[in-house]
Write a structure and sequence with these properties.
Helices cover 45% and strands 23% of the residues. The protein is of the alpha/beta class. It has one domain: 2-Layer Sandwich (Nucleotidyltransferase, domain 5), CATH 3.30.420. α4 packs across α6 (119-135). The N and C termini lie close together (10 Å).
């Protein structure tokens, strides 16, 4: 099963995709949130290129496992995007995915400024990998 993941932020949305077998998640791109929410051509092209069967969006949770303060906004935006794409929608816990993405990028020698455009797509690939692992088989 092919999946496309979105790490939805107020300014940017990180995008990751699975390989054709649904085994490995890879970072794809970061787009301005407005482009994704408006289903702009750049986002439609990514959807067409990856031909996903499902859209997986990060669900912000607190460390206690409850929905975080931005969860309702993000879940509503995720539904809007999934409806526009005609895809089923699933959510995956995105707790600490951005922190882990920053750690990975730091290990690769990127500065804070260089990371800014990459953190969201790496975070999306991390929670997508968790989702893929849970749905394998």
């Amino acid at each position: 099963m092919r999946a496309l993941a979105l790490d939805i932020g107020e300014v940017r949305i990180g995008i990751a995709a699975s390989d054709a077998s649904g085994t490995i998640a890879v970072p794809v791109k970061v787009l301005p949130a407005a482009e994704v929410l408006q289903n702009a051509r750049t986002f439609r092209n990514i959807v067409q290129d990856h031909e996903p069967d499902v859209l997986v969006c990060g669900r912000p949770k607190t460390l206690a496992g409850e929905d975080g303060p931005q969860a309702q906004r993000i879940m509503a935006q995720a539904r809007q995007i999934a409806d526009a794409c005609g895809l089923p929608l699933e959510f995956e816990d995105e707790r600490l995915s951005s922190q882990e993405a920053k750690r990975i990028l730091r290990e690769q020698g990127l500065s804070e400024k260089s990371m800014r455009g990459r953190v969201d797509m790496v975070a999306a690939s991390l929670f997508l990998q968790t989702w893929l692992d849970a749905h394998r088989g």
